[in-house]
Amino acid sequence: MMRRDECLKVLARHHTDQIVIPVYQAAFEWRTIKPEALTYLGTGAMGQASSHGLGMALGRPDKRVIVIDGDGSLLMNLGSLVTIAEAAPRNLVHFVCQNNTYEANGFHPIPGANKVSFAGFARAAGIEKVYEFDDLADFDRRVPAILQEQGPVFAVLKVVAGEPYPQDWSVIHSGALRQQFAEALAKA
Amino acid sequence: MSTVVSGQTIRGAEVIAAIKRSGIATIVALPDIVTSDHLLWPISRDSELRLIRVCKEDEGVSICSGLGYAGVPAMLLMQHTGLMDSLNCIRGVAMEYEFGLCAIVGLQGMEPDRLPPQSDKYGVRIVEPVLDAMGIEHARLTLRGDEVRIPEAFQQARKSKRPFIFLVTRSPE
Questions:
Q1: Contact B69 A55 (CB under 8 A)
Q2: Partner of A14 at 20 to 30 A CA spacing, among B6, B51, B69, B102?
Q3: Which tens digit of pLDDT belongs to each residue from B43-72?
Q4: How far apart are CA B64 and CA A52, in angstroms?
Q5: Could you read off the pLDDT of A8-52 as tens digits, one per residue?
Q6: Cα–Cα distance between B161 and A142 in angstroms, integer?
């Protein structure tokens, strides 16, 4: 099992100019680890990150898009895996942090905690490139290739919470940051 | 008391032409029986349009938003039941986060000779009041000529970052 913030630090080392769409606790951590204008936080409703990512990937085929989803979030939008497989964006990498809890909502277990297979969902949806990681060194070794691979790519990160990061919800809801993202994407 | 709505029924081909005039060439959709034959099927065969089929309507809201940030205007085509199912996403993405969602929504079960407030169907009657409560602009597509509002309404939605939803009250011909 990996600590999520350590996992995101590894991802940040290999991240270059991709659009990143992180959710909830991963969003707070990513914003601290790698504060960049091409980070999109305005997913607006739980579960929607993969769909925002799909839209951006289809709209900007010249840019790679990284979604950092949550397990509880993805459970709310499992159909998006099928939609992504059907649309087959070559530039979309979809990570899901599986910690088996609704961490932002009181640490309640997700249904199917420690039983449900997100990799299984993705494969069954028709996504061919599916990975699972529970070892940080292994993730560090393989993530550069995953970020370059022709998508759609789906990868499960089996994580536990790491160090506490500040939860500033005003950042998540910030209109100024959405505007900053829009301007950065238009120039990218 | 029902209200008879008389006149020539809206034409699917003219609605599609109006969508194109609004600058939209990407349609995100789930099938709806009201708009199936003369909107969604023709859209699916139109080489000038890109169709993205989704599994659930709230996905469509978010895909349209993602496309919008990427500079690609898109429209969501769905049934009113899907609209109801997507309200939280529309609340967050379109209203609180100010995305000019453009959508056409079929009122499934709507009696063709009535107006929505006079429908016998609870699910149909509540659509316009719900949109009003959310502060979402909307208009009906019933009769031939109603589609002329589409280009300006959708262009204004994108410009003002406020959603606009057309409600199809009668199956287009």
A1: yes
A2: B69
A3: 999 999 999 999 999 999 999 999 999 999
A4: 8
A5: 999 999 999 999 999 999 999 999 999 999 999 989 999 999 999
A6: 41
